[in-house]
Amino acid sequence: MKIEATSPTKQILTAEDIASILSVSKPTAYELMRREDFPLIEIGRCKRVFSDDFFNYLSQKAAKN
After folding, report:
1. Residues 21 and 5 sit within 8 Å (Cβ to Cβ)
2. Eight-class DSSP state of 4
3. Hey, what's the torsion of the CAs at 54, 52, 10, 26, to 10 degrees?
4. CA separation, residue 13 to residues 20, 48, 58, 64 (Å)
């Protein structure tokens, strides 16, 4: 069974998940993840983000606009 990025059981998101959620390309998702204010988790060369932190980040960005 594949767990979708929007599933409440998926706690850590990848660039592919972020790209799917935002309907952008994977390189654009990586560009977002390189921002200084992005709540990134780096495990070696892997880049991840906790889903709660990601959605809080989006909410904060939306509130500023």
Report:
1. yes
2. P
3. 0
4. 10, 6, 14, 23
pLDDT, tens digit (0-9, with 9 covering 90-100), for 3-59: 455 555 689 999 999 999 999 999 999 999 999 999 999 999 999 999 999 999 999
Residue 26 in contact with residue 16, Cβ under 8 Å?
Answer: yes
Q: Dig out the tokens for 30 from the structure.
A: 């990586």
Question: What's the rounded Cα separation, in Å, for the pair 53 and 59?
Answer: 10
CB 46 within 8 A of CB 5: no
pTM of the model: 0.81
16/31 Cα distance (integer angstroms): 12
Q: Specify burial of residue 4 (Cβ count, 10 A radius: 0-12, 13-18, 19+).
A: exposed
